[in-house]
Amino acid sequence: MDVQLTAAHWVYLAGILVILATMALRKNIVVPAVVATFLTALTFSGSIVTGLSAIFNASLVAAKELFNIFLIIAMVTAMLGALRQLGADRMMVAPFRRVMRAGTSSFLVLAAVTYVISLFFWPTPAVPLVGAVLIPVAIRAGMSPLSVGMVIAICGQGMALSSDYIIKVAPGISASAAGVEADAVADKAMVLSLIVGGTALLITYLVQKRHWSAPSPDLLVEWEAAADRGIGDTADRGIGETRDDSSGDGGGSRPPRRPEPAGGPSGGGEQAATATAVLVAPSDPIADPDSAAEKERRGTAKAFAMLVPLAYLAFIVYLMLGKFTEVVPPLQGGDAAAIVGGIAALILFAAAASTDRGGFLETTSDHLVDGLVFAFKAMGCVLPIAGFFFIGNPEFAGPILGISADAAGPAILFDLVTTVQSHLPQNAFITSFGILLIGLVAGLDGSGFSGLPLTGALSGALGPAVDVDPSTLAAIGQMGNIWAGGGVIIAWSSLVAVAGFARVPVLDLARKCFLPVMAGLILSTVFAVLVF
């Protein structure tokens, strides 16, 4: 199809290049994204009013699309705050210490659990489940928060979602556009996803292992204490700026700073760590461990430490029954995420009531506000960035540019990609890597599956010309699109959820994932051409 590029296309392309260059320089990209949004809208409409309003509309549209992620981060963070105040959070993770005793075992358990849950139910419910239960254990076992986020993103949004082998939405879209069988795309995508994920995980392990520490409860205390301090620093400096490895993300070669015990310098060991974790003020008296009130509190904490994993285990069983039987209706995507948030809210209410019976209503509200503040401090800067890339998607361009609902919005990003493919040489390797590149570029809007019709259609058209099975090219394009837009190397995607639970800057997480994932994508593409 012959696409006529306009001045708006070139302005949008220039904006993408400037943003990528700014990211490469490790600088904040909010201002370039907002300026590019204004210039693209101004060039497209010829109206400065539309250009100015597009700045606001782009962030508003992005907020509508991403608010479910913000809300679930807030709900689970609020729940964890109530559990921490009760002292149940440390008891809840204690059983996992038997397996997750050190960094390597934690790495393997995180990878396996995230992959299995995400493969069956998509990463939407997997991230909060892992975030609520396993991330604190991995931090205590010595893993750095950044490496925790990388493992979850690679195994969930990357390896599991890029194959989508169980639910098969992605292979179905790719196959329909390419004119091939969905199972053929799914089988090849499964193999390629394992190659990409395995390569990325191996590189991540080798690179990040030197930043891990010896297991210690102080690591968990430091991580929890650094959340408020670190997120505040991130918000003040900008989401794209980084700090020394030793201060924000748990990396660096020096050991973590041992926090001052909450009861003063005289406190020590596990008791001091626990006191800090449950946010006991310095002026509070140290509870008598043999008192009736303390025994009751510990009993309540133990009950909640069992309740939370059992509640989420029951939810997983419910999902499996919906998937494989007709006993309950099936849940997918947003429905599953909503239930995760609902469970977190009910546990929050119960934990707050157990901690503060008289002021339960006020305590619950405080935890919810803290959760929302945390979510927006951590992820708020993503909105204007996502808004710029949403202009390239016809589904979102209309509301941003003030086009009526009856008229279709411009497909600026897809037009650029379609133009590029017409200049690809007729060679199997070049065509395959071209499809991969197109998938990566199409994933820049951060929506995950939006570029699959394009890569699928191009695969069906170009495959016979270069003597490559169209299902192979479709699987390659699917890898590029989902590993980028699904939430691994693009910060303005569901990667914000992973960063939120790991409590690391989302752009730092995206940068660290980039090279391992790209190495895996290159290797998998070579494998696909030679073997398939």
Give the structure's gist in a few sentences.
The chain has 23 helices and no strands. The protein has 532 residues and is an all-alpha fold.
Write up this protein.
Helix content is 71%, strand content 0%. It has 532 residues and is mainly alpha-helical. The two termini are 28 Å apart.
- Percent helix range: over 70%
Number of helices: 23
Which stretches are poorly predicted, pLDDT < 50 over at least 5 residues? 231-286
Mean pLDDT: 80
What profile does the largest beta sheet have?
A: none
Shape: globular
Query: Which strand-content bin applies to the residues?
Result: under 5%
What is Rg? 24 Å
In N-to-C order, the SSE pattern is HHHHHHHHHHHHHHHHHHHHHHH
Distance between the termini: 28 Å
Number of strands: 0
Which features would summarize this protein structure in a list?
mainly alpha; 532 residues; globular
Topology record:
Layout: H1 7-24, H2 30-45, H3 48-86, H4 88-93, H5 103-121, H6 123-133, H7 135-140, H8 145-163, H9 169-178, H10 182-208, H11 217-237, H12 269-277, H13 292-324, H14 334-355, H15 360-379, H16 382-390, H17 394-401, H18 412-421, H19 428-442, H20 452-462, H21 470-485, H22 495-502, H23 506-531
Helix pairs in contact: 1-2, 1-18, 2-3, 2-16, 3-14, 3-15, 3-16, 3-17, 3-22, 5-6, 5-8, 6-8, 6-14, 6-22, 8-10, 8-21, 8-22, 8-23, 9-10, 9-20, 9-21, 10-21, 10-23, 11-12, 13-14, 14-15, 18-19, 19-20, 19-21, 19-23, 20-21, 21-23
